[in-house]
Amino acid sequence: MAEEVKINIMTNVRGYTDKELLDRVKKIEGFKRIPKDYWLLGVASNENQADVYDDKFYLYHGQTFIKVVSGTVNTGTYGLLNFKKWNRKGTFVIKQDQWIYDFWKTNHMHKGKMRSFGQVKACEGYRDGNGNNIAEEGGKIIKGIFGINFHTVSYKMAEIVKKFIGGWSVGCQVVNDTKKYYEIIDLVSGNQSTISYCIIKEF
To answer: According to the 3-state scheme, what is the secondary structure of the chain?
Structure first.
């Protein structure tokens, strides 16, 4: 059961039962089915602290809970304040409460330096260009492939846990514990070529 797992994380996202999470994702925009293979669920914290890894990722295999880790579904302060380096309209913020089937390919190299999941299917989101340090949904919804990868917080193969996002997310979905991250990467990449993603708001 998801709520029984003890993890050292820096998030106030509440604990859930498997039933609560599975019931919730079936109500989310774009839902067709629970994938039969491994899939990821991102839960965005209502607290939404600036530049802090305060969200959660749950790994499932079908309807079976496998693992939960902390991370961020949001861009960090660096991306939010320096968005004009990439897009004058704002930094990409992924839309919460959506399903994207086969969102990532599993055997991908993030910037050629890190094993990761790489975006291959379009997702919906927003451009946050208001210049503050909080990632926010708002304005016109855009859809496309924006390089929204799933990766961790270091290019070094070392056990590292970080509290602050810094430049590690400019829209990417990021796990802040390298050891737990590679447990997910190793498990999934050896078994399937793509992985689906559902992202929801804390409820």
So the answer is: CHHHCCCCCCCCCCCCCHHHHHHHHCCCECCCCCCCCEEEEEEECCCCCCCECCEEEEEEECCEEEEEEEEECCCCHHHHHCHHHCCCCCEEEECCCEEEEEEEEEEEEECCCEEEEEECCCEEEEEECCCCCCCCCCCCCEEECCCCCEECCCCCCCCCECCECCCCCCCCEEECEHHHHHHHHHHHHCCCCEEEEEEEECC
pLDDT tens, residue by residue, 126-185: 999 999 999 999 999 999 999 999 999 999 989 999 999 999 999 999 999 999 999 999
Half-sphere CA count of 134, side-chain side, radius 13 A: 8
pTM: 0.93
